[in-house]
């Protein structure tokens, strides 16, 4: 809610307690952000003086006096707190500043798009009319909500990159935005992949005064988790599959998203699934130091699946859109009549094509599990988790199908466990062979190496490796079709390719009629014969790869881990299991008598 000044505050003679962690929080930024914004914690009126010793007091008058000493005039004062009890608004207006109230909740809930737009528009109009005055912005502590909206202004109105905006705020008000949700939110706002956002800085000491998890930043009691997801407007499930619908009812959507995150122990926003990293010449050595399992990398779509009960099968994609597949069924292993519940698995959807008839069969391939029948198995080894996929999920389901308890004909897709093998030279070579690829009914585009003895890791996992042949190395760009002209040249269309965290185009590609339908969409491209070539639209993603990811792919193109290098390394230096992990020799035969 937004309002102007006038009328003063109405908190009466008892203002309530000072906000949590306010006392030792630094008063204001040491610099003006972008030369226009002053960030500061909320001042408190004299009604709080009996709770605050003189050396820690901070009133509106003190801030105005400080700025006057620097010959700086505050022309606009924006209050982002979700309360009116901290000071009297008349104390602002009598100094000649315009007061604006823009209520933002805080406590892990980023300002929404309407608030971002309102803040940016108000500030933009003020700066145009009053170029010599500054804008003073505060929330309770002057870090997260304040930093988010000031950074948003520069991203939207000044076309700053997200990293520049975040770093400029941090330079002026150390340590900067210190909550991960807000940093990820800025990445989403700028069109960058939030999974590529840097980790938040270490919490400042003043922020660790006491546990106030049941209080919001303004000192109000709150219930539960107030994280706010930024949901895609028109989510679409994998093309070619019917009987799966998006969950759009807000309360239901938030409930499922939160449940999946909690099962993964994920405290941020967005998709919590494990994210493997690209193999390069440096991390290739992990195959020497750790036991791995290997499988083919399918050219499908990633989904986590929550099995909550009968007709409550939910799939979460990389954008963290949620879809419901009510006709898919699972059964408990000890009682095939009872539906499986409280289970979370990870996998990918593929479309298998019968080579003889051409008939297409959608299948969900489960390759990992987080929770089964209420039991948290995240910290089990991959080997143990993988075995339980078969014993607790696939085998009971197959038994129910055989006994006609479950009718798979009405299901929109089949379900299987994806196969993994020891990552030795024999199986790795086999997976790369033409004979194996010909037996697959869908397109492979590389290999996945899964650490065998490690727990399930939500988010980026440096030990989980994905390998692609040089011909399949690709980058997900945001395409912008633009007209280019110059002296002595005709106007022509070109495709500018953008990545996250980098303002100018990362590269260009030749315009074709095919590209006109993909303007401002995410497209996957490969680099071939000195140019980027279109492969497909990434309908499952709303963000391009980050600048660092794009650089890593370019590096892998220049210095690739080729199939020959990979096989030679595994053969010569691959992890060798100790004798105790190998099958025991057969017992010696007794001599005949």
UniProtKB/TrEMBL annotation:
Q: InterPro entries recorded for this chain?
A: Dual-sp_phosphatase_cat-dom, mRNA_cap_enz_bifunc, mRNA_cap_enzyme_adenylation, mRNA_cap_enzyme_C, mRNA_Capping_Enz/RNA_Phosphat, NA-bd_OB-fold, Prot-tyrosine_phosphatase-like, Tyr_Pase_AS
The record lists the organism as Cherax quadricarinatus (Australian red claw crayfish)
Where does the secretion signal sit in this chain? Answer: none
Return the annotated region ranges for Disordered.
214-234
Quote the catalytic activity from the record.
a 5'-end diphospho-ribonucleoside in mRNA + GTP + H(+) = a 5'-end (5'-triphosphoguanosine)-ribonucleoside in mRNA + diphosphate; a 5'-end triphospho-ribonucleoside in mRNA + H2O = a 5'-end diphospho-ribonucleoside in mRNA + phosphate + H(+)
Q: Got a GO cellular component term for this one? A: nucleus
A Pfam family per the record = DSPc
Q: Which Gene3D superfamilies match?
A: 3.30.1490.430, DNA ligase/mRNA capping enzyme (3.30.470.30), Nucleic acid-binding proteins (2.40.50.140), Protein tyrosine phosphatase superfamily (3.90.190.10)
Q: Which residues bind GTP?
A: 302, 318, 346-348, 466-468, 536-541
**Record-annotated membrane-spanning stretches:** none
The family database entries (CDD domains) matched by this protein are listed as:
Adenylation_mRNA_capping, Mce1_N
Q: Which residues form the active site?
A: 139, 297
Q: What is this protein called?
A: mRNA-capping enzyme
According to the entry, every stretch annotated as the Tyrosine specific protein phosphatases domain falls at 113-184
């Amino acid at each position: 809610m937004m309002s102007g000044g006038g009328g003063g505050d109405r908190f009466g003679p008892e203002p309530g307690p000072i906000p949590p962690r306010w006392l030792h929080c630094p008063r204001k930024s040491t610099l003006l952000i972008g030369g226009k914004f002053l960030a500061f914690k909320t001042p408190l009126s004299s009604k709080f003086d009996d709770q605050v010793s003189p050396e820690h007091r901070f009133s509106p008058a003190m801030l105005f006096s400080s700025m006057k000493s620097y010959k700086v005039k505050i022309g606009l004062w924006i209050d982002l707190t979700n309360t009116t009890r901290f000071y009297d608004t008349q104390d602002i207006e009598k100094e000649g500043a315009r007061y604006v109230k823009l209520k933002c909740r805080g406590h892990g809930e980023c300002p929404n798009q309407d608030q971002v737009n309102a803040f940016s528009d108000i500030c933009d109009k003020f700066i145009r009319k009053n170029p010599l005055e500054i804008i003073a912005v505060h929330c309770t502590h002057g870090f997260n909500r304040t930093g988010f909206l000031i950074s948003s202004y520069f991203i939207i109105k000044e076309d700053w990159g997200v990293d520049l905006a975040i770093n400029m705020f941090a330079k002026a008000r150390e340590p900067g935005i210190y909550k991960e949700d807000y940093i990820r939110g800025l990445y989403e706002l700028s069109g960058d992949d939030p999974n590529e956002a840097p980790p938040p800085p270490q919490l400042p000491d003043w922020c660790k005064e006491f546990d106030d998890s049941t209080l919001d930043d303004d000192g109000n009691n709150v219930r539960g988790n107030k994280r706010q997801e930024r949901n895609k407007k028109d989510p679409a499930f994998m093309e070619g599959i019917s009987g799966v619908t998006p969950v759009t009812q807000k309360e239901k959507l938030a409930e499922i998203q939160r449940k999946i995150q909690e099962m993964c122990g994920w405290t941020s926003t967005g998709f919590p699934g494990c994210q493997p990293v690209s193999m390069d010449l440096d991390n290739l050595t992990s195959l020497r130091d750790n036991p791995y399992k290997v499988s083919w990398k399918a050219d499908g779509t990633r989904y986590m699946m929550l099995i909550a009960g009968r007709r409550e099968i939910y799939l979460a994609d990389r954008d963290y859109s949620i879809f419901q597949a009510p006709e898919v069924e699972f059964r408990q292993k000890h009682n095939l009549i009872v539906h499986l519940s409280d289970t979370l698995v990870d996998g990918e959807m593929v479309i298998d094509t019968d080579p003889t008839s051409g008939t297409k069969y959608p299948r969900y391939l489960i390759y990992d599990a987080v929770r089964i029948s209420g039991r948290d198995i995240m910290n089990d080894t991959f080997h143990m988790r993988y075995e339980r996929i078969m014993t607790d999920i696939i085998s009971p389901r197959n038994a129910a199908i055989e006994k006609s308890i479950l009718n798979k004909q009405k299901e929109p897709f089949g379900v299987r466990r994806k196969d993994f093998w020891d990552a030795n030279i024999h199986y790795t070579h086999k997976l790369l062979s033409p004979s194996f690829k010909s037996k697959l009914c869908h397109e492979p585009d590389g290999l996945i190496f899964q650490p065998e003895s490690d727990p399930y890791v939500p988010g980026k996992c440096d030990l989980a490796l994905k390998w692609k042949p040089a011909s399949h190395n690709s980058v997900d760009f945001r395409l912008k079709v633009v007209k280019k002209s110059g002296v002595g040249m005709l106007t022509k269309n070109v495709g500018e390719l953008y990545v996250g965290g980098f303002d100018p185009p990362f590269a260009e590609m030749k315009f074709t009629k095919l590209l006109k339908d993909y303007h401002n969409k995410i497209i996957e491209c490969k680099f071939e014969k000195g140019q980027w070539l279109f492969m497909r639209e990434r309908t499952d993603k709303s963000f391009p790869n980050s600048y660092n990811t794009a650089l890593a792919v370019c590096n892998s193109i220049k210095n690739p881990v080729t199939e020959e290098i990979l096989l030679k390394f595994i053969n010569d230096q691959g992890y060798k299991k100790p004798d105790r992990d190998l099958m025991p020799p057969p017992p010696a035969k007794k001599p005949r008598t």
